[in-house]
Structure formats: C-alpha cells, structure tokens
C-alpha cells in the first residue's frame, strides 16, 4: 500500500501549507520575564500605558525657540535657562516667551511656548544671549507628545515574534513580564539503515546523522522545540513505532525514505496509518520528493482506524516527509515546514520574501523545475550581486555552509545572462 502520487508546482505546494497553517492552533500560554520572552511569540496584545513620548521631546542638542523669532537673521535671543533629559531642575523654565531661548539637550522636554529647536551648530552664546544663524520651521527637531503612540493604543499585537525592538517597546510601556505561547514540540525522525549516530563507530558505506541536527537548529530558529527521535531503520514495524511516537508531538518531520526506492518505506507506513496526503512531491530542485499530510488521532493519541467505531474525539497531526539528502532537507524545511512551525508557535502568517540582485555570472540550466540553489550574495550598499556556488548536488553540505542565500531560478528559464536581476532568499 502506497500513497497516491500528487506532485505540485512550488507555488501550489506552498499555498497548501499556508492554508493548513491558518487552521492550526498554538499551544497553551505561559507568563515569561521580559528577557526570557525574547524569541517567543506574544499571546496577548500590549498597549501603551501613557503617550509616547509623554511630552514634546527634543531630538537635538541646541536651543528651544519660537520659530517666528527667527524671521530676520542673524537673530539674538535671551537665554533664560537650561533643560536636560531626566527630572526637571527647579530652575528649569516651564514657559518660553517671545525673544527668549532655552538651552536644551537631546531627549529633554520642550517648554511650553517653544515650537522648534535650533541645532547647536547654528548658534553662538555670548553674555547670556544666543546668536542664531539658521531659521527653523514650527515642529522642527521636536517629536510631538503622543506622536509614536497614544495612551491605551496597541503597540504590540498578539502573534508578534519578540525580537529586540519588540522587547524594548514592551519595556518602554512598563511590561516586565509578558504572556507568550508555549513553544511547539517538533519531532524529528531520521530514517535509513545507512544512517548512524554522530558518536557511533562508522562503516565505509555509512553516513553520520547530520539531518537531525540541522533540523533542530532550524526548528529553534522558527520558534519550536526539537524532539530528536532514534534513527529509524528500513524496517516497517520499527519505523511505524517511531512514526507513532513522533505523532505525539505537535508536528512530525521525517527525513529520508520518501523517494521511489525499494527501501523507501515512509509513505507506505503513513498510508497504512490512514494518512491524508496533501502532496507527495513538488516541482523543485533540490527537494522534489517532499511529502506533506496529516494523520487522524483518536482521544488516546493513537492513529484512528478506518472502520472502527467512532472515537469520542478526533485530532489532526501534521507531518512532513523531507528528502534525505542534507541540502534538500534544509531547503525544504525553509520552503514548507517553517510556516507550519511558526503557526504552531502562535505567529501571525508571513509570506515568503524574495529579494532581488544582479547576477554576477550567467546561468545555463535545464527547464522544468523551480530551483533553489546555494549562492553567494556580495557587494556593498546598493551594488549587490549574486552567483551560484559550485556544488556536487543536494548532498553537498559544504557548499550550503559556504552560501549565504538561495538563488531562485524560474522553471521556464534555461539561460540567464550576467547582469540580469534574479530572485534570492537570504539566509
């Protein structure tokens, strides 16, 4: 018994995953200290506890003035005091009248009556008066009160991945702890008699298990918690036991065993578990034999059997069968598995983003597949260019480790000239 063949274009396969990702629910929530919330996904909206900034704020060191006092230059104004950032001194002026100026520091509150700040570079102070050589417009070098956020307005939405700026924003509104989603548990199952553990004594035809470790890193970067299962042999009974174990996690990622070889048994075992397959391949290189589907689980957490009496509760567990070649594993994770893990982690949906760069050297390649090949993006500032890295196929981990992007080649382009714009996915 095998799964039906369903090979989709890249775009169609990606859309299938994105549609399914919209249907999954993140795990339970927990309260985390601000620093420990970094990298997690916000489970609650966060609002401003006051206006941001809470006062009109100077963005420059200089002098707070009335713009209309600088119509005739150079202008001389009486300096009536100084305002620095932080608590106001008792001697700091609160109001500015016509013909007056206040020395002010970056971040300090602008006094009432002032409507602009002149940068100190255009001033000179002498005998308590400041001479100003440059006019300013009302509002210049001032951030108005509430310009960044109004009190009670939303500053961080549920589903936001908490990076450094989000953590800083939460701190600025007084949130020392945040409600976040628990990281989803992502099972990783590497299959194949030729695969051995990293520390095992290795034979001449065996391969050390690198896929479990590359996937563990990618899972953590996507917001999940990897659960590494034992290596599965090419033997249906043990393979089924490990697949059923992996289905107890929130998502199961399998590598190897999804091609058309005699000992590629993953699809066969999944079909025996009454799995529903959404696709069994994508028209891409590397990674064409990628599989995506789900298994129905009954209330006990075991696969639901067809023909059995209806269980009290049915749940769905999704799985990916990723190709066994290491580069294929890494690429198909980014293209297909990542959006599902991000959804399980509670993140809001994000499209796959492509950048564009000029091609450094021409490309000649066969048509028919959309290709995501390792490349080097280089150059400075806006003058970037990209070129393919010479590689020995989808088992060449060294080439992937030297690359900093994937060069995206359309399926209908056989020859792309140097200097043409081409899509890339940065790492």
Topology record:
Elements lengths: L6 E2 L1 H12 L7 E5 L12 E2 L9 E2 L3 E4 L9 E9 L16 E5 L11 E4 L3 E4 L2 E4 L9 E2 L10 E3 L7 H9 L4 E5 L3 E6 L4 E2 L10 E2 L2 H12 L2 E4 L7 H11 L4 E5 L10 H7 L3 E4 L1 E2 L1 E2 L5 E7 L17 E8 L3 H19 L10 E5 L3 E2 L5 E11 L2 E6 L8 H6 L2 E5 L5 E2 L4 E6 L1
Task: Describe the structure in your own words.
The structure is a single chain. This protein is an alpha/beta fold and 427 residues long. The protein has 7 helices and 30 strands. It has helices at residues 10-21, 164-172, 211-222, 236-246, 266-272, 326-344, 397-402, and strands spanning 7-8, 29-33, 46-47, 57-58, 62-65, 75-83, 100-104, 116-119, 123-126, 129-132, 142-143, 154-156, 177-181, 185-190, 195-196, 207-208, 225-228, 251-255, 276-279, 281-282, 284-285, 291-297, 315-322, 355-359, 363-364, 370-380, 383-388, 405-409, 415-416, 421-426. The strands form 9 sheets. It has a 6-stranded mixed β-sheet with strand order 8-5-7-6-10-9, with no helix packed on it. Strands 17-14-18-23-22-19 form a 6-stranded mixed β-sheet, with helices on both faces. Helix 1 (10-21) runs parallel beside helix 6 (326-344), helix 3 (211-222) runs parallel beside helix 6 and helix 4 (236-246) packs across helix 5. The longest helix is centred in the C-terminal third of the chain and has 19 residues, at 326-344. The model has no long low-confidence stretch (mean pLDDT 91).
